[in-house]
Backbone:
């Protein structure tokens, strides 16, 4: 039996900085929700709809940089460090183009699309206000993703802890200033939340750029050489990345559709679901970090020519993921009302949210297995196969959510149970194809 040479300590060395970074990054969503929750159910619900609509298109860029991360990880394992700068520069070209396209699409589609599906006019207007400001942050957000791909792919993840802490701290201070109108600024409500995040992204980009110059990463990897775009490099990069782009876009489109389904139940259900979303994203962080580390470690392991160590490596990460999951789920299921109190003091909204936290506590078990196995499959370079799995599981997800709304006396808790089906199916399918072993002969 093959035993991986990657130790538990090494896994945590890669994963912990990512996890710390994700804590800071997702803390922005939590703080936004906590602040906006004080403005009422309509604003809280609109933040969910507007935020997920925005993130659905951002996932196109995120998916591309995941493909970039996998390719950088492979070259890092092969110790071809000079090639990494070319990959990074070509990713920057693509992300600037992606950012421009996303900005145009959001500007043209949001008013008409949301009007078709939202039953509450108040939620519609607040969602459009959020998007009208938030879309300007797309360019710097995409450039930050390029830096993330570079430092995760090369396993130099410590800097990401610092950068996302800066982003979160800046966002929190500006949220307090702009949402409620403190320090002499006007109270801007949901628009203030969008502007605060935009400014935080600009500050973070400037920090990453400055740190890369001071740390000589730019010279070491030969970044920002403004290479002439080469189809020879774009073609394999895009071939690896486009399935992940579509996969991420479909995943968040499904989540956007999920919240549209919830919105039909009522404004209280939508507000409760936004609170649940914030808590859910925090609970996911340890396993998300391990999942991101899985892509990098698997890609580096294959680059080193150690294909037989991939499955044992993934098994190690699964054990860590399950253990980390228990640490966050048990307190959540034990004291749901305490967590909810950070977001609202309205008894009706609290009562509506408690059952949802019980459901996501169960869903987290499926998530801990599903996302790590799926990340392992993506890390092998089988991104097109991962896309096919995503399409199948999203279909199951939406069917489950839709059927749940047809139940007598339906509630948001029934709809949230689709999360269990989604991640459970994802894990089973990913494990089947990992064991099948077709990834062993793939060249990236």
Residues:
């Amino acid at each position: 039996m093959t035993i991986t040479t990657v130790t538990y300590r090494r896994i945590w060395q890669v994963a912990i900085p990512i996890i710390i970074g994700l804590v800071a990054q997702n803390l922005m969503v939590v703080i936004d929700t906590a602040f906006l929750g004080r403005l009422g159910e309509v604003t809280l619900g609109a933040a969910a709809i507007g935020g997920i609509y925005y993130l659905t298109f951002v996932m196109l860029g995120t998916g591309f940089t995941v493909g970039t991360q996998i390719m950088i990880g492979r070259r890092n394992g092969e110790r071809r460090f000079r090639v990494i700068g070319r990959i990074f520069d070509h990713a920057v070209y693509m992300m600037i183009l992606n950012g421009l396209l996303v900005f145009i699409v959001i500007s043209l589609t949001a008013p008409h699309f949301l009007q078709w599906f939202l039953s509450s006019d108040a939620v519609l207007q607040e969602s459009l206000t959020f998007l009208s400001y938030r879309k300007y942050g797309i360019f710097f957000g995409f450039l930050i993703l390029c830096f993330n791909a570079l430092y995760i792919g090369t396993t130099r993840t410590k800097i990401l802890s610092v950068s996302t802490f800066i982003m979160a701290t800046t966002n929190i201070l500006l949220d307090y200033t702009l949402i409620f109108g403190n320090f002499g600024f006007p109270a801007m409500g949901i628009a203030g939340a969008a502007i605060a995040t935009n400014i935080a992204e600009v500050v973070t980009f400037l920090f990453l750029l400055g740190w890369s110059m001071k740390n000589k990463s730019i010279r070491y990897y030969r970044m920002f050489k403004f290479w002439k775009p080469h189809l020879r490099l774009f073609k394999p990069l895009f071939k690896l990345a486009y399935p992940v782009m579509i996969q991420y876009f479909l995943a968040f489109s499904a989540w956007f559709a999920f919240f549209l389904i919830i919105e039909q139940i009522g404004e209280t259900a939508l507000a409760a679901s936004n609170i649940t979303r914030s808590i859910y994203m925090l609970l996911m962080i340890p396993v998300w970090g391990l999942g991101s580390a899985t892509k990098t470690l698997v890609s580096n392991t294959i680059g080193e020519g150690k294909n037989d160590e991939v499955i044992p490596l993934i098994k190690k990460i699964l054990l860590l993921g399950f253990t980390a999951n228990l640490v966050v789920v048990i307190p959540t299921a034990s004291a749901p009302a305490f967590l909810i109190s950070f977001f609202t003091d309205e008894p009706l909204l609290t009562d509506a949210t408690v059952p949802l936290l019980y459901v996501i506590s169960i869903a987290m078990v499926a998530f801990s297995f599903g996302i790590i196995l799926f990340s392992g499959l993506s890390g092998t370079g089988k991104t097109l196969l991962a896309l096919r799995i995503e399409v199948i599981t999203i279909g199951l997800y939406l069917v489950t959510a839709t059927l749940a709304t047809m139940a007598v006396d339906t509630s948001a808790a029934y709809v949230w149970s689709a999360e269990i089906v989604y991640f459970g199916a994802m894990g089973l399918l990913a494990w089947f194809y990992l064991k099948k072993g077709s990834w062993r002969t793939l060249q990236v």
The two ends are 27 Å apart (CA to CA).
